[in-house]
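so my prof wants the structure for this chain in the tokens format not the other one, which i didnt know existed until like an hour ago. anyway here's the sequence
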Amino acid sequence: MAPRSAAPGSPRHPVEWIGHRGAPREYPENTLPAFQRAIELGADAIELDVHVTADGVAVVHHDPELRGSSSRALATMTWGEVARVELAPGIAIPSLRQVLDAVGERATVYVELKGSNSERATLDVIAASGTRCAVHSFDHDAVARASRLAPGVRRGILFDAYPIDVQAAMRDNKALDVWPEWSLIDAPLVERVHAHGGRVIAWTVNATTAAEHLVSLGVDGLCGDDVRLFPK
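here's what i got, hopefully its the right format
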């Protein structure tokens, strides 16, 4: 089955509403209940993080290791070991496959490539799914590798500092989505990305005033912990 590439579509809102790791104010982040809740609240899309286990399974978790009394790196654990970990009573760390199966066609899934060399395992799962997906990362080299492995899957690049030459970064990494930390975004940045045929997705937007300002600048997506804060 060919993956459905995330692309500018017709979201139900002025800009795309993206649930940052689901709905983390109500459920543990990056879990099936959090993603379900974000969709219930009106999210057009969800955003999540992926690492790969020692036996090659893409799992959805933000940090590279589990915290607590038995802290271990996900990359050293098998999927069977990870699946037995409870983040809250009855709530486990899901695999990417489980998330895509649960979401189906109800929302777009934006997958942040976190772990070292996580792109192949991630893209294999996306290729087997009918869910509309895209990948993005702070590791722009991983995005470039993803472009070679699966050119049909939409790609994005994350920034936590103002991108001086954003069009060169888009071109060099074959990315169309630009994900800056929300406070970095200004009108010239939006204009440059749009001129290069891309979209600007702001993270992590957790105030209505900030969301309204970003919409006025022309951003294409808002990624936050509670999509109810976004302008309707």
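also thought this was worth mentioning. The chain has a mean pLDDT of 94.
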